[in-house]
């Protein structure tokens, strides 16, 4: 058991969720990137799932914080506290030190933001920190051949950012990072419900609607009629100010997400435009892989195909792809040094 605690780890430090992969053990932690603080006494009350359950319900004595916004650290101290709690949870109560860590970050982050991530992880006792851009990590995790001379393309739609990249010969040839992803989907649903149905809903309800009836385009039956699905959503009626429950359809959520999904498809097109012609020819043949929680939106691949003419498939392990990629990259440190954007040693 003691060898387990000295094992290297991969971390997908996401805006919405943090996943930790430990070498030879797989993904050992998957928790929301949320921390709850006690305003009176100071200190951490809860992290992860427990903290997320407090969103929108906490009294003034408790601050519920999401310390990462749009894929970057917005609150350094709270991120450090949250990550420390997650790492301790992932490896039980044993002290871990002198381990190697690969952290997935969005492709658009600055050097300052990368150093902030490195600093947080080094405070946990890591001897080496490798920063791996999320689309590269997602491509490795999704099983794409990133070392081949034949290019592959991936769109990783996370919580804070959508990272689109074309990869060949172990490097990113062209990439686009859009700060429009899962969190913006939730915001769009909240705004739509407010304007269209005069119903004020919370962030958690919006996320539940996105997961249960979220779709990029509607399915049709054998007769060609649209298949409508609905779920009930509870919130506050803006006009009366009283609690209200109503049925929300997949058409409603499709309309709410339309603008955000259009931005992602535009990002896919602009990434291809940045690539050399030979690379574009490879992508026309091999298509695009979707990963991340947002990549699992119903019929998103179908809509991308309709709009771009490229084959689009969802990775089998779409949600865990970045975490798996960070962990799998530890199997070959020499290759990792090529993939990684920076390395820090103590």
Order of helices and strands: EEEEEHEEEHEHEHEEEHEHEEHHEHEHHE
Q: Unreliable segments (pLDDT under 50, ≥5 consecutive)?
A: 1-5
Q: Which structural class fits the helix and strand makeup? A: alpha+beta
The portion of residues assigned to helices is 25-40%
Order of the strands making up the biggest sheet: 3-2-1-9-10-19
Query: How many individual domains?
Result: 3
CATH topology type of the largest domain: Nucleotidyltransferase, domain 5
Structure explained in plain terms:
With 346 residues, this protein is of the alpha+beta class. 36% of the residues lie in helices and 28% in strands. It is built from eleven helices and 19 strands. The strands form five sheets. A six-stranded mixed beta sheet has the order 3-2-1-9-10-19, with helices on both faces. Strand 17, helix 9 and strand 18 (312-314) form a beta-alpha-beta unit. The chain starts with 8 loop residues before the first strand and ends with a strand.
């Amino acid at each position: 058991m003691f060898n387990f605690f000295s094992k290297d780890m991969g971390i997908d430090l996401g805006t919405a969720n943090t996943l930790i992969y430990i070498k030879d053990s797989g993904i050992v932690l998957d928790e929301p990137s949320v921390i709850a603080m006690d305003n009176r006494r100071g200190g951490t009350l809860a992290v992860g799932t427990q903290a997320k359950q407090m969103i929108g319900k906490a009294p003034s004595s408790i601050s519920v914080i999401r310390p990462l916004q749009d894929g970057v650290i917005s609150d350094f101290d709270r991120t450090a506290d949250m990550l420390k709690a997650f790492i301790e949870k992932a490896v039980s109560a044993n002290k871990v030190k002198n381990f190697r860590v690969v952290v997935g970050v969005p492709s658009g982050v600055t050097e300052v933001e990368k150093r902030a991530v490195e600093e947080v992880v080094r405070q946990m006792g890591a001897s080496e920190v490798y920063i791996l851009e999320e689309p590269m990590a997602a491509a490795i995790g999704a099983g794409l051949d990133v070392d081949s001379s034949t290019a592959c393309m991936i769109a990783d739609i996370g919580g804070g950012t959508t990272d689109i990249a074309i990869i060949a010969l172990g490097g990113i040839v062209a990439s686009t990072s859009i700060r429009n992803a899962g969190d913006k989907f939730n915001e769009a649903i909240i705004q739509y419900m407010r304007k269209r149905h005069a119903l004020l809903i919370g962030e958690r309800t919006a996320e539940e609607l996105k997961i249960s009836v979220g779709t990029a385009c509607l399915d049709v039956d054998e007769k060609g009629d649209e298949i409508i699905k609905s779920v009930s959503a509870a919130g506050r009626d803006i006009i009366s100010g009283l609690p209200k429950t109503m049925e929300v359809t997949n058409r409603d959520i499709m309309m709410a997400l339309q603008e955000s999904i259009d931005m992602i498809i535009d990002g896919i097109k602009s990434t291809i435009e940045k690539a050399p012609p030979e690379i574009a020819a490879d992508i026309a043949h091999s298509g695009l892989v979707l990963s991340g929680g947002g990549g699992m939106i119903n019929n998103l691949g179908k809509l991308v195909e309709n709009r771009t003419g490229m084959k689009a498939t969802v990775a089998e392990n779409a949600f865990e792809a970045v975490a798996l990629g960070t962990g799998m990259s530890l199997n070959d440190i020499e290759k990792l040094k090529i993939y990684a954007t920076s390395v820090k040693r103590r």
